[in-house]
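note to self — DONT lose this again. spent like an hour looking for the file last time. sequence + predicted structure for the chain T wanted, 197 res
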Amino acid sequence: MTSPACKLYKRPFTELMYTDPKRYSFLFQSYVQLTMLQLHTYKSAMPYKIMERSVFSARCFIENMKRTKLLEDVEVVVLEDWYDWCIQNANIVTDLIVISYIYINIVYLRTSPDVVYNRMKTRARKEENSVSLEYLYQLHNIHDEWLYDQTLFNLPAPVLVIDGNKSLEEMVIQFENCKNLIFNRKKEKNWNGKKIL
């Protein structure tokens, strides 16, 4: 994530957040929500908008910061109010569905924290060096509560759960097998919950 603010520090926000989470969690999450809102409201000429994360998934990170006491209560209130304002006033879902004729789909690449950890170590990004396996388990559990068990937050769209533990080659094949399901939501009017592939 690059921004003018990041350039002032000469370090990526992710590195700042992971090396001193108590100090930078609120700042980092505030900026994440801004950039996610910008991505959601960006008018694309393409018929689909694929995002790694969204305003909706940002709540999982806020929830983790709340559970692990990285945020003060007042910071949680500010971030949750900011999230609620985005959802209520930016008209994210309506803009995507009506204006761009895009149906939101949540594709959950459900991946074991151990696999994620090993992939992070293999790619060796400097800003991820201090990410612990425990942290990945915390985030995995919260995402599972939200997207797999569907007990944590309201879902803005149907969820397609894909096994993310597979190799890249297997994932490409799996994507080819389900891309019509992902990109042709209009044809599946009765699907309103969760599918697992």
